[in-house]
Amino acid sequence: MTGTVSAILLAGARPIPDPLAKAAGVAVKPLVPVAGEPMINRPARALLDHPTIGEVIILTQRPDAYAAEPATAWLADHPRVRFETGGQGIASSLLAMMEARALAFPVLLTTADHVLLDRAMLDQFVGEAQGADIAVAMVERATLVARYPQSRRTWLKFRDGGWSGANLFWIGSDRARRAIALWQEVEQDRKKGWKILAAFGPLALIGALLRISTLRGGMARAGRRLGLEARLVAMASPEACIDADKAEDVTLIEAILAAR
């Protein structure tokens, strides 16, 4: 399946100034230097170097910022990279691209701060997400703590463990539009978030709250409720959930890169 997966690299800016970007004196967070180069360069190269990835779409409100920066100008010139100007939210931007038929499925989505993204992570995720309409990569708490006990993450607690997002998402078909539309509602009005959860069914919601539901089972049931196949990919690499979100993350990532 050489070159059959499209990739979206999220490189947008939040409405409020990002602390890392402000401290580094750069226009947007993906230009913040990590281990000597803008953080976006490493995940971009990982995607372009992977045999299953064809086109890489960089979704951002500031494509000019990357073309103007000498260290990232190569992205603007690369034949397999194109820039798309994003809107106010990720979900709304994805839906607009799907509406305009500007996406070829399947699509792998990741973020510019996923600096440690590598071949092994992509191999596992693409391999296990194949055939799903929606797939989400997560890291179980024990996997991370065994290697990096100092790394602080936000954990979702279920009967099958605590889970943290790995910034890898799979959009396998146009049926995923239903899930992305729900995501858009949460983005637009986070106060409606509990209503979105309730839409998956009261038993699913109560089960999650009481930790009597597994994340794998809950995702599968939520997908069936939407008429699609949703899948959890439990990542083997603890580094999969370490993104460059805070200064302490950057310090840890640079130590990991130096050890490699």
TrEMBL record:
Highest rank taxon of the organism: Bacteria
Residue ranges of the TM segments: 194-212
Cross-referenced Pfam families: NTP_transf_3
InterPro entries assigned: MobA-like_NTP_Trfase, Nucleotide-diphossugar_trans
Chain ranges of the MobA-like NTP transferase domain: 28-143
Keywords (A to Z) from UniProt: Magnesium, Membrane, Transmembrane, Transmembrane helix
The keyword Transferase is annotated on this UniProt entry: no
Protein name, as recorded: Nucleotidyltransferase family protein
Biological source species: Sphingobium soli
Source taxonomy: Bacteria, Pseudomonadati, Pseudomonadota, Alphaproteobacteria, Sphingomonadales
